[in-house]
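We give the entry.
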Amino acid sequence: MILFDPFEPFDRRHARQILGLFPRLALLALPFGGHPASGILRAAGQSGLLMQTLVEDGGPRVQTLRNAYREIRQEEPSYLLALARRSLLCHPRVADWALSRLEEMDTDGGPNPLDAGQESS
């Protein structure tokens, strides 16, 4: 299985090149997953799920990982921030949703990715 972020140009290109060499591999696009694309699964403590699906009888379960990613990403700040940045110009309502979600998540008092790069006083 090749996990890749379709919004990372190098990931897209490398996934196509690898698939050209190993055509029996399955592609799994994980939008805004970064590099490596499995980072969000790892950040959410789900890297075990990734390993489990890779060693199951009958081969990896692409749909299992895709479904897990869809659930996890709505709670993952790095995904939401990347989605907001990418959507801001062409899809402002999507960007607004992602930023609102980040603000909701900030209620725990932990670090807020929206404050990145700002000095605290």
User: Anything to note?
Assistant: The chain has a mean pLDDT of 81.
